[in-house]
């Protein structure tokens, strides 16, 4: 009996009738047709490739400064010109992608994991546990990201011999410490929305463990908004890193990053705008790509926007 | 209502305590010696250093220092900074200018952001909608400090429309326009996008269709029926963004050389002036929490269905 129904429904007709699709499949279907989605994925792919394998794009050494050739206009030898220290701006910009992309992705992942965990726990268990976790969230939420970042980085400055890894890790750490409350609040409220649903009650009545209920019923239905915000936050974190570097306390030379390059170039904005233009352009494109990706994913997951 | 406010104020206490402790601990870890460079070219005498450390409780362990600080703070004493000037006096001067800057930035957000969002939402898919969408994305993806330095160069130096720097504490409103716009620029873009999204969503609601079917003009249907509901998330955003504005003020004030709270914190950090930094940030956090309480109370005004009883 079931076999005959399956046999009659399945072939070919699935597109007309509409097969049973999960929200994720549905979202993927609408994403696939979205041009902006592919544009942002392409850009992000390009930046990630730059971060992993910069020598693919340039054979120049970003650490080689030719003092006799400073602030040169773009030419065939130096595509984007040279900066105040005689560095090749094109090479610096390509190599600078690594710091920004690492900071963005790591900070976003950490906040998603930490904020997601705290949000789920406080939303799911409720009671005094929720009250406690919510106050802790409020405490960190009350300190603005940039302010906390400035204080932290000023308290634990980079020494002249700090390794690249340490310098980047510190920025990731501080952005995670002051960035997770947004995700936690969001996650908590979407867990509270999912929890009263019948399928959760049914699972509980059937004797499923809390861990199982969270994993297979709550998480899949409550995760979408947090993922969207984490994607958009990626851009926010990249900008925050650049801002800290602009103040001279984020990434510091010899680390190469767009923020460091922009901050160096700002002093010469009147006379040599091209030094500022290229790193700003790349930074903005990266931020733009993550915002567009986040927007596209949100539209795909939100049936109301169709 | 009264009960709600009291409960919220009580909830604020642990939050303020926790946040100030974190800030205190970070400032406590500030490297460097606050007495360094206080006595000119030569090192300070041991007596002076000992007296200085004693006066500012620098020899106590962190929790004791924090407790002593808090005891004074509760009595309204924000302490004296390392130059012997009461922080309260300094702050009173500096909060006026930063407050004006932040209020002007919020005004820009509310007026330009909501206007652009409404225009884009009402004419969804048309030219103006695309223009607003593209320009807001443009603003969001460029870091504020690049926008700030660029606008300072363009309007302040090249064209000379606005003063390039505003060092005076009694700056005119006119001279603050450019810094306030820069400070608010990112949020203007967010407000515009948020207003547009909510407006578009609400314009499809049944009650709007009913309103139009009854023969109301489009202006009234949008202005009275839709906008009010669409503004709730926008108001939340502006309230939550207030903290971001105060943080962003550090960057903006540095670009335009404004002697406000941001500049004060920055100076305090660089001169290892712990008391000044902690007090300033604490006041800032309290202001921020109060603004958020105000926003929650505003909900009830915008949407009578939400009550705080």
From TrEMBL, chain A:
Lineage: superkingdom: Bacteria
Protein location: Cell membrane
InterPro entries in the cross-refs: BP-dependent_transpt_permease (IPR050366), MetI-like (IPR000515), MetI-like_sf (IPR035906), OppC_N (IPR025966)
TM region(s), chain numbering: 36-56, 101-127, 139-157, 163-183, 222-249, 276-297
CDD domains, A to Z: TM_PBP2
All copies of domain ABC transmembrane type-1, residue ranges: 97-294
Pfam families registered for this protein in UniProt: BPD_transp_1, OppC_N
Keyword list, A-Z: Cell membrane, Membrane, Transmembrane, Transmembrane helix, Transport
Its membrane topology: Multi-pass membrane protein
GO cellular component: a single term: plasma membrane
Cited PROSITE patterns: ABC_TM1 (PS50928)
One BP annotation, GO: transmembrane transport
Chief subcellular location: membrane
Family the UniProt entry places it in: Belongs to the binding-protein-dependent transport system permease family.
Protein name: Peptide ABC transporter permease
Origin species: Knoellia subterranea KCTC 19937
UniProtKB/TrEMBL annotation, chain B:
PANTHER family in the cross-refs: DIPEPTIDE TRANSPORT SYSTEM PERMEASE PROTEIN DPPB-RELATED, DIPEPTIDE-TRANSPORT INTEGRAL MEMBRANE PROTEIN ABC TRANSPORTER DPPB-RELATED
GO cellular component term of the entry, any: plasma membrane
Membrane-topology descriptor: Multi-pass membrane protein
Record-given protein name: ABC transporter permease
Family stated for the protein in its record: Belongs to the binding-protein-dependent transport system permease family.
Principal subcellular localization: membrane
Organism of provenance: Knoellia subterranea KCTC 19937
Alphabetically ordered keywords of this record: Cell membrane, Membrane, Transmembrane, Transmembrane helix, Transport
Membrane-crossing segments per the record: 12-30, 101-122, 134-154, 174-192, 275-295
SUPFAM superfamilies: MetI-like
Limits of the ABC transmembrane type-1 domain: 95-299
Pfam families, alphabetized: BPD_transp_1, BPD_transp_1_N
GO biological process, one term: transmembrane transport
Cellular compartment(s): Cell membrane
């Amino acid at each position: 009996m079931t076999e005959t129904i399956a046999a009659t429904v399945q072939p070919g007709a699935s597109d007309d009738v509409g097969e049973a699709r999960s929200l994720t499949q549905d979202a993927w279907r609408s994403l696939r047709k979205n041009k902006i989605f592919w544009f942002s994925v392409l850009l992000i792919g390009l930046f990630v490739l730059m971060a992993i394998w910069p020598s693919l794009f340039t054979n120049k050494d970003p650490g080689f400064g030719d003092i006799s050739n400073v602030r040169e206009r773009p030419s065939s030898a130096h595509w984007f010109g040279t900066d105040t220290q005689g560095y090749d701006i094109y090479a610096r910009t390509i190599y600078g992608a690594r710091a920004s992309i690492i900071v963005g992705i790591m900070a976003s992942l950490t906040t998603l994991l930490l904020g997601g965990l705290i949000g789920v726990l406080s939303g799911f268990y409720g009671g005094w546990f929720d009250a406690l976790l919510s106050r802790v969230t409020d405490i960190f939420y009350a300190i603005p990201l940039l302010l906390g970042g400035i204080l932290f980085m000023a308290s634990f400055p980079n020494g002249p011999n700090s390794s690249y890894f340490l310098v980047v890790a510190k920025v990731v750490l501080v952005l995670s410490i002051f960035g997770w409350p947004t995700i936690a609040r969001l996650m908590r409220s979407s867990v509270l929305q999912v929890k009263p649903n019948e399928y959760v009650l049914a699972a509980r009545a059937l004797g499923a463990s809390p861990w199982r209920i969270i994993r297979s019923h709550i998480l899949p239905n409550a995760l979408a908004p947090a993922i969207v915000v984490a994607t958009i936050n990626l851009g926010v974190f990249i900008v925050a890193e650049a801002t800290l570097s602009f103040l001279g306390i984020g990434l510091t030379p010899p680390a190469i990053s767009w923020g460091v390059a922009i901050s160096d170039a700002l002093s010469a904005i009147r006379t040599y705008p091209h030094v500022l233009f290229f790193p700003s352009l790349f930074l903005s494109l990266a931020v733009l790509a993550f915002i567009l990706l986040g927007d596209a994913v949100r539209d795909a997951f939100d049936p109301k926007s169709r | 209502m009264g009960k709600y406010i009291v409960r919220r104020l009580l909830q604020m206490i642990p939050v303020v305590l926790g946040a100030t402790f974190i800030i205190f601990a970070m400032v406590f870890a500030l490297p460097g010696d606050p007495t360094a460079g206080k006595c000119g070219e030569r090192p300070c005498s041991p007596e002076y250093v000992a007296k200085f450390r004693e006066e500012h409780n620098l020899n106590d362990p962190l929790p004791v220092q924090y407790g002593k600080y808090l005891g004074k703070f509760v009595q309204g004493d924000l302490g004296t900074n390392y130059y012997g000037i009461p922080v309260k006096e300094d702050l009173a001067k500096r909060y006026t200018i930063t407050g004006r800057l932040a209020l002007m930035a919020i005004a820009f957000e509310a007026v330009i952001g909501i206007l652009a969002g409404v225009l884009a939402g009402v004419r969804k898919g048309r030219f103006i909608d695309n223009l607003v969408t593209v320009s807001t994305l443009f603003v969001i993806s460029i870091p504020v400090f690049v926008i700030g330095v660029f606008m300072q160069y363009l309007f302040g130096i090249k064209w000379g429309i606005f003063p390039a720097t505003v060092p005076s504490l009694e700056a005119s409103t006119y001279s603050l326009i450019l810094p306030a716009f820069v400070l608010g620029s990112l949020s203007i873009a967010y407000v515009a996008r948020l207003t547009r999204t909510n407006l578009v969503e609400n314009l499809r609601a049944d009650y709007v269709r009913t309103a139009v079917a009854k023969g109301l003009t489009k202006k009234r249907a949008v202005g009275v029926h839709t906008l009010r509901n669409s503004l709730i998330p926008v108001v939340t955003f502006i309230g939550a963004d207030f903290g971001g504005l105060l943080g962003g003020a550090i960057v903006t004030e540095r670009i335009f050389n404004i002697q406000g709270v941001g500049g004060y914190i920055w100076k305090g950090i660089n001169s290892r002036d712990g008391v000044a930094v902690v007090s300033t940030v604490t006041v800032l956090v309290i202001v921020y929490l109060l603004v958020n309480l105000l926003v929650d109370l505003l909900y009830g005004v915008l949407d009578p269905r939400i009550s705080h009883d």
